[in-house]
Specification:
The structure holds 2 protein chains of 2 kinds. Helix content of chain A is 31%, strand content 16%. By secondary structure, chain A is an alpha/beta fold. In chain A, the strands form 5 sheets. Chain A has a 5-stranded parallel beta sheet. Chain A has a 5-stranded parallel beta sheet with strand order 17-16-15-18-19, with helices on one face. A 4-stranded parallel beta sheet of chain A has the order 11-10-9-12. In chain A, helix 12 runs parallel beside helix 15. Chain B is of the alpha/beta class. Chain B is globular, with a radius of gyration of 18 Å. The mean pLDDT of chain B is 93. Classes of the chains: A alpha/beta, B alpha/beta. The structure holds iron/sulfur cluster. Iron/sulfur cluster binds next to loops of chain A. Chain B: It holds the Pfam family Aconitase_C. Chain B: Catalyzes the isomerization between 2-isopropylmalate and 3-isopropylmalate, via the formation of 2-isopropylmaleate. Chain B: Belongs to the LeuD family. LeuD type 1 subfamily. Chain B: This is 3-isopropylmalate dehydratase small subunit.
Chain lengths: 467, 199
């Protein structure tokens, strides 16, 4: 019996496997940030132990940083304290930090891949659920809690029960105006926010194969939104050519050796999955969410389910969600007025996302009463955007290009959507209050967000492409 | 926070909502602390308090007839972020047990790592628990970890629940994962010696 890609990587990282015990799994790369690490470092201090393999952990400041005037001291005292603690802890324990002002700083899941730190075949963890992003390279990558961050700092290992394996195949050709974000929103809307709980997902099929690395990252990023432990895609030429030449990627003889290994990383033909789902790319239209979990999504031209289309047991939660959003069951979203557009987050803040948006809005101007924030995923993305003149396109369109960070994805810094306002967001969560207390979020692709920025309304981006 | 969990009899607090995500349990803007303490104050912050920080009378935690160390919630509890702050907030508020018909994976780990017991029951049993609390807000729930049983004391109805043997031993004895992993140090170094790559 053959092995799945997931099994190949997992099994080759087991340090200890005992009956009735979780596996002790060796971790190749550990990312940390300011919000979920301070208590872990405190734990080490209390136990009087060092970081076991400090060179395998990399740190950045992203969740809590301002996205304007990053060269100035952080105004908000608690945020400043958290960022200062990260500097203090990484200095004391000998961990490399790409903090504010560093040319590599950015959202942790953006910088790992772009620096060539994220590689196929690795095990990767971070105290952040969207660590699943790195799975796009054929790595086993998943989010962990702070107690687990402490485990990895202390031992470079983590205790985990092996999840089940699911394969999700998407076959066929995507329609114009449909992006990888739409693929993943579509899948989640079909299987629900808990449809993959307990599983590690492998994405396959020619629609996935034909995606760029950055588009693949968007898919893997949102695996967690259907409850999956993580998601991965077998590496191929697209992967290898993306990695080659990046700052920390292997070089010379190391590269050749690594490449030979990476080429063995695929699911064998006769490998068994616990569950297999198949979708047709041609069925997918641009997506938008209407509710308060990412499973509450639909095609942009469709109607929100009417009450009688919702299972009776789920009606109270459904109603609560629509009340929060101030939307009527059975209504359409197309044409709905919006107040904010947020293009950013580890889901869609890479250079391809920015290029796509710039191409679409070039020479056009945003609607008057809409605020548009573009928050690049990293300093390198920001620099690249400026080098390509994308910043000028945004300025002419009335979009505000800010500095890198998580920003309005989770509203920890001052970038919050005001109460009651509607925001089209390229991020990954539409939970109540996620973008600010009582803020209302519609998740969508960067193109759908850009189209809404121009019209001030929920818009079918395909109209611009003549369907 | 006591590190040992064995047996508990307590009244319960019902929150019959599905898909309660970690942003509801503790909104992100309260994640700025650098210690594990004090998060209980902001547990379910936006459901508990209005924009002027006044308690909302209709939320269960503001209703004095409900109290206890057991939280009973709708399915898919703890979905969303990996933030352990959600578990810290529940623990700091005083909850020792969360009962639901389904838990998100990362939350389950985080809860156990903080000596909170997630008890996964069938949908039918969950409904019975909600009904028992509705009939009597002081209804007692008994949780027996050794025998893996949850019981509605008044009616005697009970159900067994799953927990893996390793985690059960940890909870019963107050061990944690790091104690175990540190004991594997030689195995870890041996494994490192077998890696073909330096990444
Ligand atoms: S951008 Fe959003 S989802 Fe991504 S790491 Fe930051 S807060 Fe988490």
């Amino acid at each position: 019996m053959g092995k799945t890609l997931f099994d190949k990587i997992w099994d080759s990282h087991i340090v200890m496997s005992k009956p009735e015990h979780p596996d002790a799994v060796y971790i190749n790369t550990h990312f940390i940030h300011e919000v979920t690490s301070p208590q872990a470092f405190d734990g080490l201090r209390k136990r009087g132990i060092p970081v076991f393999r400090p060179q395998k952990t990399r740190a950045t400041a992203d969740h809590n940083v301002p996205t304007l005037e990053q060269h100035l001291p952080i105004k908000e005292a608690l945020s400043r304290h958290q960022v200062e603690m990260l500097t203090k802890n990484t200095t004391e324990f000998g961990v490399e930090l790409y903090g504010l002002g560093h040319p590599y700083q950015g959202i942790v899941h953006v910088i790992g891949p772009e620096l060539g730190i994220t590689l196929p075949g690795m095990t990767i963890v971070c105290g952040d659920s969207h660590t699943s992003t790195h799975g796009a390279f054929g790595a086993v990558a998943f989010g962990i809690g702070t107690s687990e961050v402490e485990q990895v700092l202390a031992t470079q290992c983590i205790l985990q029960y092996k999840p089940k394996r699911m394969k999700i195949a998407v076959n066929g050709t995507l329609k114009n105006g449909v992006l990888s974000k739409d693929i993943i929103l579509y899948i989640i809307s079909k299987i629900s926010a808990s449809g993959a709980t307990g599983y590690f997902v492998e994405y396959a099929g020619d629609a996935i194969r034909n995606l760029s690395m950055e588009a693949r990252m968007t898919i893997c990023n949102m695996s967690i939104e259907m409850g999956a432990r993580g998601g991965l895609i077998a590496p191929d030429e697209t992967t290898f050519s993306y990695i080659k030449g990046r700052q920390f990627a292997p070089q010379g003889a190391e590269w050749d050796k690594a490449l030979a290994y990476w080429k063995t990383l695929f699911s064998d033909d006769d490998a068994a999955f616990d569950k297999v789902l198949t979708f047709d790319a041609a069925d997918i239209e641009p997506q938008i969410t209407y509710g308060t979990n990412p499973g509450m999504g639909m095609g942009v031209t469709q109607h929100i389910p009417a009450l009688d289309q919702v299972e009776e047991k789920e009606r109270p939660s459904f109603k609560k969600s629509l009340e929060y959003m101030d939307l009527q069951p059975g209504s359409a979203l197309l044409g709905k007025k919006i107040d904010y557009v947020f293009i950013g987050s580890c889901t869609n803040s890479r250079i391809e996302d920015l290029r796509l948006v710039a191409d679409y809005v070039k020479g056009k101007r945003k609607a008057d009463d809409v605020v548009v924030w573009i928050v690049p995923g990293s300093k390198q993305v920001e620099a690249q955007a400026k080098a390509e003149g994308i910043d000028k396109v945004f300025a002419a369109a009335g979009f505000q290009l800010r500095e890198p960070g998580c920003s309005a994805c989770l509203g920890m810094n001052e970038d919050k959507v005001p109460a009651g306002m509607y925001c089209i967001s390229t991020s990954n969560r539409n939970f109540e209050g996620r973008q600010g207390p009582n803020a209302r979020t519609f998740l969508a692709s960067p193109l759908t967000a850009a189209a809404a920025a121009l019209t001030g309304r929920v818009t079918d981006v395909r109209e611009a492409f003549g369907h | 926070m006591s590190k040992i969990f064995q047996h508990l009899v307590s009244s319960a607090v019902p929150v019959p909502i599905e898909n309660i995500d970690t942003d509801q349990i503790i909104p992100a803007r309260f994640l700025k602390a650098t210690t594990r303490d004090g998060f209980g104050e902001n547990l379910f912050r936006d459901w508990r308090f209005d924009a002027n920080n006044q308690p909302k009378a209709d939320f269960v935690l503001n209703n004095p007839i409900y109290s206890g160390k057991v939280l009973v919630a709708g399915k898919n509890f703890g979905c969303g972020s990996s933030r352990e702050h959600a578990a810290w907030a529940l623990a700091d508020y005083g909850f020792k047990v969360v009962v639901s018909s389904f838990f998100a994976d990362i939350f389950k780990n985080n809860a156990l790592n903080n000596f909170i017991l997630p008890v996964q029951v069938s949908e039918t049993f969950l409904d019975k628990v909600f009904q028992a609390i509705e009939a009597d807000p002081e209804a007692k729930i008994e949780v027996d970890l050794e025998n893996q049983l949850i019981r509605i004391v008044a009616s005697g109805e009970q159900e067994s629940f799953d927990i893996n043997a390793y985690k059960k031993t940890c909870l019963l004895n107050g061990y944690d994962d790091i104690d175990y992993l540190l004991s594997l140090r030689q195995d870890i170094e041996k494994y490192e010696g077998t890696r073909a790559f330096n990444f």
